[in-house]
Amino acid sequence: MIKMKNVNKYFYKGEERELHALKNINLEIKKGEYALLTGASGCGKTTLLNVIGALDSIDSGEIYLDGVEIGSLSEDERSAIRLNEMGFVFQAYNLIPVLNVEENIGFIMRLRGFSEEEIKSRVKEVASVLEIDNKLKSLPSTLSGGQQQRVAVARAVAPKPKIILADEPTANLDSKNSKALMDMMRSLNEKEKISVVFASHDEYVMESVKRVIKLNDGEIVES
Q1: What pTM was computed for the model?
Q2: Contact assessment for residue 71 and residue 4, using Cβ atoms and an 8 Å cutoff
Q3: SS3 of 150, please?
Q4: In what order do the strands lie in the sheet with 195-199?
Q5: How large is the average pLDDT for residues 90-96?
Q6: Whose CA, among 35, 59, 167, 191, lies 20 to 30 Å from 161?
Q7: Residue ranges per domain, the chain?
Q8: What are phi and psi of 10, to 5 degrees?
Q9: Using CA atoms, how far apart are residues 216 and 52, in angstroms rounded to an integer?
């Protein structure tokens, strides 16, 4: 589903290359995978996740999503792929503070043109699975960190994307909520057949996934 060939990414200071962040990455992510990008801080896992998600451009190489080369697409074309094909879970949640839980979960579905009936039904479905169905009329500011992260997961899952990319999803959670979130993510992966790729070094994520991809200094050293 995702195929990367000799992908390189640099960070620049002015016109000078300051950091070779990703070095000749060759990687395949199959449909339905439940995988983890891991390694020490600064190893390149978040950069790789952002490149897979078309949030960052690359300097050389090729990236394919279902056979379509996305590395050289325009920003508008990449935006369309992010909206229609991918779901994102960020460490900072990125919920819209003036929208309640129900509206936050259905936000991407509305952007994609789902009917209100489809949105209402799907929001109830994923909220029930993630045990936040009793919070649908609440604003994000009234929720705990664990509940906000579940809303973020529900928003990512609701439109049934091909792949979900989650950057340190347990970083702000205690051990109980981390384990609960990972149990739910794995259940969603198995029931919905959505590919999931995490970037994390959390032991709860490590124990949950089916595949571990280790990075060091921008290179894949084990998969």
Answers
A1: 0.90
A2: no
A3: helix
A4: 86-89, 163-167, 195-199, 34-38, 211-216, 219-222
A5: 89
A6: 59
A7: 2-96+160-222
A8: -115, 150
A9: 18
